[in-house]
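Module 6 notes. Inverse folding takes a fixed backbone as the condition and produces residue identities as the prediction. Think of it as a translation problem where the source language is geometry and the target language is the twenty amino acids. Below is one complete input and output pair. Work through it position by position during the lab.
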């Protein structure tokens, strides 16, 4: 069972890393939206393609208010919630199986 515990601990660390990286990607997308970035730049295209699916879902329920788009902040809060709930839960399950 210790192998399954180690596997779950590794999954928890991987999820934590991916969620942290995605927060930085969302922040980068928000910063790029403040400036007039070239839409054909590969970095800008990557940030848009990676963040648009989730941001568009949030924008369906929370449209921009007064020119302010709160969807990146809502997405970051959701990611922080997942990091605070999912990662410790997986860590405890993995530690229990060791």
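Target side of the pair, the amino acids:
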């Amino acid at each position: 069972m210790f192998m399954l515990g180690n596997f779950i601990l590794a999954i928890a660390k991987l999820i934590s890393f991916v969620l942290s990286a995605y927060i930085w990607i969302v922040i980068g997308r928000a910063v790029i939206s403040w400036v007039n970035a070239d839409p054909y730049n590969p970095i800008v295209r990557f940030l848009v393609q990676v963040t648009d699916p989730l941001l568009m879902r949030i924008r369906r329920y929370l449209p921009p208010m007064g020119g302010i788009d709160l969807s990146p902040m809502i997405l970051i809060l959701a990611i922080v919630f997942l990091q605070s709930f999912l990662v410790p839960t997986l860590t405890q399950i993995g530690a229990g199986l060791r």
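Reference fact for the lab report: The longest helix spans residues 2-34.
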